[in-house]
Amino acid sequence: MEYSYKINVCIIGAGPAGLVCAFHLAKFNIQTLLIDKSKFPRNKVCGDGITMKAIHELARINLDFEKKILKDSNTLPSYGIDIISPEQRQFNVFSQLKKNQEITVLVKKREIFDYNLLEEVRKQKEIIFLSSIKVLNYIKVDGAYLIKAVHNSKEVTIYTNLIIDAQGAYSVFVRQHLKLKQYNNNSCIGVRGYFERKKPSKNNTIELYFLKELLPGYFWIFDLPNGIANVGYGTTIKNFNSLKTNYKILFHQLIENYPLISERIYSDKIIGGIQTHLLPVRRRNNLFSGENFLLTGDAASLIDPFTGEGISNASISGRIAAQIAKFAVDNNDYSARFLKQYDNLINEEIGKELRSSFKLRRFLKYPKLLDYIFKNADKSRSCKNIISAMFVDFENRKTVRPVIWYLISPKFLFYRLKQWTERNKFEPVGM
Question: What are the chain's domains?
Answer without folding.
Answer: 2-69+110-182+283-356 (3.50.50.60)
